[in-house]
Amino acid sequence: MWFEIICGLVIYRLYKLFFSDGDDVLDVETSDSTALFAVADRLAKLYDGAKVYVGLRVPDADTASPQHIDLVLLNKGEAVVIAVKNLSGFISVKPDGSWVSESLTKHKIEQHPDPLAETKRQASILESYLEQRGAALPEGYLSCKVILSNPKVCTIQSSSFPPEIITYDQWVQMKPEPKSMFSGWMKGAFRGGKKEMQESIHQKLNFILSTAPMWDRLELKGNKYVLGEFLEFKGKQEDVQALRHIKRSKISRLVVQKTSMLGFAPSRLQVLYTRRDYRSEGASASEWKEVNVRSSTEVVFQLDNSSRVRKFKLSSICSMSLSA
């Protein structure tokens, strides 16, 4: 009997070592970040030619700390600051604009600050940041939306929601925007005869947003995403030494190209070097370089808006992007 127990424990440890992506990957809360990227991907399809920026960290002069912004949709003639709420259960709006959510299964009631007011505050901070970088926006150019992205959400008296709130039912029914001068969200703002934003200003905004501070991001297997801050690599000394050149000032992205069977042979990383040059708006020079390290090597990552530090094995990672 003891022999069978010992064999079972050995098999379990081998499974955890070679097949499991690690406890940190299995139990980490990735749903909110994953929802951001899912919404961003659909917005890019709904608005052909638009740019969607995910996980901005815009400097806030009032608090002297970065302000997190879920999404910014930049289309011709408009910019939309979007908050994605991955809430589930019954959602209702109180008279003061705050929300109450009740779980469908656990009967847990939670209070949420007015998400629209918070999004408008973020838009104001973003507008100030853009002005500091030389892009003054026309009046009415910047708007706000809050999207309920979770299919398990149920809105109570949805008619009481402000028009800036996109319920899940409305979200899934949205169709690709026809190619016209203005998008559906902004047509009302331009009825007074305002012209479309000049192409040069549009390009400048694209450049500013593409070079704005953002959260680092991990793309995990299973189409999961994590936003936060990359701290360091952990593992065998020779593996960490091989990855020493991966620094924020030099590297924008790394891709785990191959993971060896059962982890016996080293994984292959294909690393993209990008020389960032903020003096011009031209394309940055880049090159690919491959390094071989063990699949058990870990990425130490601090989750956004949290003091928790997580470790992710390279075998569980598809790619990592680093903000400048």
Automatic annotation (TrEMBL):
Q: What Pfam families does the annotation carry?
A: NERD
Kindly list the residue ranges recorded as spanning the membrane: none
Domain of life of the source: Eukaryota
The record places domain NERD at 31-149
Q: What is this protein called?
A: NERD domain-containing protein
* Native source species: Rosa chinensis (China rose)
